[in-house]
Description:
Blueprint: E1 11-14, E2 20-22, E3 30-35, H1 42-53, H2 55-60, E4 63-69, H3 73-83, E5 89-91, H4 96-100, E6 104-109, E7 112-117, E8 120-124, E9 130-134, H5 144-149
Parallel strand pairs: 3-4, 4-5
Antiparallel strand pairs: 1-2, 3-8, 6-7, 8-9
Amino acid sequence: MMNIGDKVEDLLGLDxxxxxxxxxxxxxxxxxxxxxxKDMTSGCTAEACxxxxxxHQLIDAGxxxxxxxxxxxxxxxxxxxxxxxxxxxxSDTDHKxxxxxxxxxxxxxxxxxxxxxxxxxxxxxxxxxxxxxxTPKEIKTKDHAAQILG
Length: 150
């Protein structure tokens, strides 16, 4: 599990186009690295669209938004196209990032247990240090940009 004060490696993963996403691609920016369970689901769409609708406000405040889920690059491309998302989505199909950040684990829905991603956002300083963690219990999908800016 990554915690406040931990240093994040430069290479995060590959985006929807197979391009490497690195912290160093965004010099001077604070990264809002948000992990979400699944493309095209209601909560994840609400969260992504809230970040999209407030994207310029986030950029103006010095943030770069990067999403992560274990969905495929093709799934991410469809999600981006359908919702007109202006930020990259990392395809973490091998679960490296979700496991490194400690956001992969057992979940339960309607009494059924399964493995999945816990909706969590890590705020990473321009120096690559985690300065804040917004936990699954705290995240409001329809107002997430305000939480990041808060």
